[in-house]
């Protein structure tokens, strides 16, 4: 079964409509239905929680509702949890050096994908354009590319 | 317990939510306020399930509506980026 590491934006775009929502929903549904195996790390979940906790748009007393949505989406997706172990994260420092435009959190997702030896699925333009990460053997795909390939 | 009638003012938004709950459940607004003051909360158990978001189009549509109302035209990446910037500032 094709396996993918899923970036945070793919989850968010599935529940917050934007120009990537359709592709993200189709991709996540395939993970949900067992056509693809999807992986996330605690860092992906943490970024989603962080986006709500630091959101200026949502009143403090309403944030629990959005946090609940995130948890429900994670559970509903049937994605597997991947927790880097032992010296896995040594690779992070190697990848950190190859593209300064990509943020640390995204390098961490790329590291997880590389450790698992599976493509990283993202809607983040900076990651999709990162030739440095690709040169290091990290395959980076947009959800629509995954759907087309399947 | 003896009941005493008092008049209070609440935010329009809260009143609307309570009226919505009253219409769905039949629990009067005054009773809802009383329950809230006692620390109780009325929560809708959406079809008694958790984790069926992607199998439940009604729930997904409702969730999207809530997120669209909160974040307006912001894309998923903009939501993540603005939270990131705020954290960096703090």
Largest interface comes to:
A-B, 39 and 26 residues
Computed CA radius of gyration of chain A, to the nearest angstrom: 15 Å
Q: Unreliable stretches of chain A, pLDDT < 50, 5 or more residues?
A: none
End-to-end separation of chain B: 50 Å
Please work out how many helical segments of chain A DSSP would assign. 9
Determine the structural class of chain B based on helices, strands and strand pairing.
Answer: mainly alpha
Radius of gyration of chain B: 19 Å
Could you spell the SSE succession of chain B in H and E letters? HHHH
How many helices of chain B? The count is 4
Report the β-strand fraction of chain B as a percent range: under 5%
Low-pLDDT stretches of chain B are none
Say what oligomer this is: heterodimer
- Structural class based on helices, strands and sheet pairing of chain A: alpha/beta
Estimated share of beta-strand residues of chain A:
5-15%
Account of the 3D structure:
The complex is a heterodimer of chains A (150) and B (90). By secondary structure, chain A is of the alpha/beta class. Chain A has nine helices and five strands. Chain B has two domains: 1-44; 46-90, no CATH class. Chain B contains four helices and no strands. Chain B has helices at residues 12-25, 29-37, 57-71, 76-89. Chain A binds chain B through residues 8-10, 12-13, 15-20, 24, 28-29, 32, 47, 50-58, 62, 65-66, 69, 72-73, 75-77, 103, 105, 123-125, and chain B through 50-55, 60, 63-64, 66-68, 70-72, 74-77, 79-80, 82-84, 86-87.
Q: What brief labels describe this structure?
A:
heterodimer, A: 150 residues, alpha/beta, five-stranded parallel β-sheet, 5 strands, 9% strand, B: 90 residues, mainly alpha, 58% helix
Topology:
The complex is a heterodimer of chains A (150) and B (90).
Chain A: E1 3-6, H1 8-15, H2 21-32, E2 37-40, H3 42-53, H4 63-77, E3 80-81, H5 90-96, H6 104-116, E4 120-121, H7 125-128, H8 131-135, E5 140-141, H9 143-149
Chain B: H1 12-25, H2 29-37, H3 57-71, H4 76-89
């Amino acid at each position: 079964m094709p396996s993918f590491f899923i970036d945070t934006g793919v989850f968010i775009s599935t529940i917050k409509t934007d120009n990537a929502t359709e592709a993200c929903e189709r991709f996540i549904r395939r993970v949900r239905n067992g056509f693809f195996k999807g992986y996330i790390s605690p860092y992906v979940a943490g970024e989603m929680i962080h986006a709500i906790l630091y959101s200026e748009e949502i009143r403090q007393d309403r944030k629990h509702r959005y946090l609940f949505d995130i948890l429900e989406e994670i559970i509903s997706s049937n994605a597997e949890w991947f927790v880097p172990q032992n010296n896995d994260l040594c690779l992070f420092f190697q990848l950190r050096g190859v593209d300064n435009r990509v943020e640390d959190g995204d390098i961490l997702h790329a590291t997880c994908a590389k450790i698992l030896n599976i493509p990283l699925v993202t809607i983040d333009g900076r990651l999709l354009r990162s030739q440095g990460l690709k040169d290091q053997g990290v395959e980076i795909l947009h959800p629509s590319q995954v759907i087309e390939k399947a | 317990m003896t009941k005493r009638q008092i008049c209070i003012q609440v935010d329009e938004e809260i009143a609307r939510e309570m009226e919505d709950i009253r219409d769905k459940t039949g629990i009067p607004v005054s009773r809802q306020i009383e329950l809230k003051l006692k620390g109780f909360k009325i929560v809708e158990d959406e079809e008694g399930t958790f984790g069926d978001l992607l199998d439940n189009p009604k729930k997904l549509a409702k969730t999207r509506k809530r997120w669209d109302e909160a974040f307006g035209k912001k894309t998923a990446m903009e939501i993540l980026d603005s939270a990131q910037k705020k954290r960096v500032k703090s």
